[in-house]
Specification:
By secondary structure, this protein is mostly helical. The chain is built from 18 helices and no strands. The protein has one domain: Up-down Bundle (Amino acid/polyamine transporter I). This is Amino acid permease.
Length: about 450
């Protein structure tokens, strides 16, 4: 019996060693690029048209506010991650700070909002691709893009990181080239005489719709940073956890700089009144120069942006589902991973949910689906507030640790919560967004009700 026990122990040790050896990790710079790939999506390349139409040039101030808030959220999450390594990232800290129900609510809110946002990205991808292939039905493109996204995630963490890094570089390069082109115009290197629609260019009035315009646009602007939680989720795959601060700080500095410069170029190249939400503001600005194939080029860029955002969302919500399973807040089989560190059953569940969401997106009227996706964005931003609230509650327990301290605690955490509430309240100025807020409240109530009825732990 003793010999049998020793043999069994040796086999288990060898198995664990092989699994540990096979576990794939990512570097801090890959984490930064994953974050960029997951954040810069169609919402920025296309959706900024609505923000500019609502706020005018003051949209730049809105992006600065959103960027600062994002940094406050990241800084709080980084402190908790470095000083208290927990599986499940932000939802684990919510559970630790406010109890099991908070962790359950945070995790399922994130999973559901990510699922709905993924489906909207896939519908957008299909619509953009149909621009070239009008005869091909949208549902076929949806199947193709969803299959590609799941295929990339099945390759494992290391390959996923490399592919997302490539997408991030493409998007950054596009924006940098656009900024460079705009700089040549601003400094008079390029002649604008032939571009008649640019004669009224420049910022003549910062607040054409008053402070109310900026306030109501904040909710859309904050969505442009919505994928920041991916950094927290993916940090579990870092070789060295302390590098999350390096990865996140670099990520946010690059994002805010590129966002502000590119939008500054847009509102200087063209009168903001001609920008419409139906077209990318970058296309509107460049179309004045009659550049050949500009529509097709930016269509391709928007497709790559939306696709990588969808892939990043799939990665993060699948990881959160594994965390929920480990805590008993989802079926236990969903936490099982293969040799590549991929939770295949969790991905399959997400695939089923995504299929249902995409089906509804085609069946429901456009306005109804807009309500649901708006609600998803609101839930995503509300999770930021939960991260900051968890940080406020848990920070005193880190007082004897000196590895990393969040910037400006506690003022930045309280300020961040205030700015998040300010952004969400701005949705009250739009009828569709008001209904979206109501839908988000109903979805949150359903998640909490499910916890009370099915998953509640005594």
């Amino acid at each position: 019996m003793k010999h049998h026990h020793l043999v069994k122990q040796a086999v288990e040790h060898k198995k664990n060693k092989q699994l540990k050896k096979g576990k794939e990790t990512i570097t801090w710079w890959q984490l930064s690029l994953i974050g960029i790939g997951s954040i810069i999506g169609a919402g920025f390349f296309l959706g900024t048209g609505l923000s500019i139409k609502t706020a005018g040039p003051s949209v730049l101030i809105g992006y600065l506010i959103a960027g600062l808030t994002t940094y406050f959220v990241f800084s709080a999450l980084a402190e908790m991650t470095v000083n208290d390594t927990e599986k499940g990232s932000f939802r684990a800290y919510a559970k630790k700070a406010f109890g099991h129900s908070a962790g359950f609510l945070s995790g399922w809110m994130y999973w559901l909002s990510g699922l709905l946002i993924m489906s909207s990205e896939i519908v957008a991808l299909s619509t953009f691709t149909q621009y070239w292939f009008e005869a091909v039905p949208l549902w076929l493109f949806s199947i193709i893009y969803a299959s590609l996204g799941f295929g990339i995630n099945l390759l494992g963490v290391k390959n996923f990181g490399q592919i997302e890094s490539l997408f991030a570089i493409v998007k950054l390069a596009t924006l940098i080239i656009f900024i460079g082109f705009g700089a040549l115009i601003l400094f008079g290197v390029l002649d604008l005489n032939e571009a008649s629609s640019l004669q009224d260019r420049g910022i003549s009035e910062w607040f054409p719709n008053g402070w109310k315009g900026l306030w109501s646009a904040l909710i859309f602007i904050f969505f442009s940073f919505g994928g920041i939680a991916v950094v927290g989720v993916a940090s579990s795959e870092l070789k060295h956890k302390k590098n999350i601060t390096k990865a996140g700080t670099g990520l946010i500095l690059i994002l805010v700089t590129v966002y502000l410069l590119s939008l500054f170029i847009v509102v200087n190249m063209v009168d903001w009144k001609v920008i419409d939400e139906s077209e990318s503001p970058f296309v509107t600005a460049l179309s004045a120069f009659h550049l050949p194939y500009i529509d097709s080029i930016f269509n391709l860029i928007i497709i790559s942006a939306a696709f990588s955002t969808m892939v990043g969302a799939l990665f993060s919500i699948s990881h959160v589902m594994v965390s929920l399973s480990e805590d008993g807040d989802a079926p236990q089989k969903l936490k099982e991973k293969n040799s590549r560190g991929v939770a295949v059953k969790s991905l399959l569940l997400t695939a089923g949910g995504l299929a249902v969401s995409i089906l509804f997106s085609y069946l429901l009227p456009d306005t109804m689906y807009e309500y649901v996706t708006t609600a998803a964005g609101v839930m995503l931003i509300l999770n930021w507030g939960m991260i900051l609230a968890s940080h406020i509650k848990l920070h005193p327990s880190y007082k004897d640790k000196h590895s990393f301290k969040a910037f400006g605690y506690p003022y930045t955490s309280y300020l961040g919560i205030g700015l998040i509430l300010l952004a969400i309240s701005g949705a009250l100025f739009h009828e569709n967004e008001r209904i979206g807020l109501l839908v988000s409240a109903v979805l949150i109530a359903l998640i909490f009700g499910t916890y009370k009825v099915i998953f509640r732990k005594n």
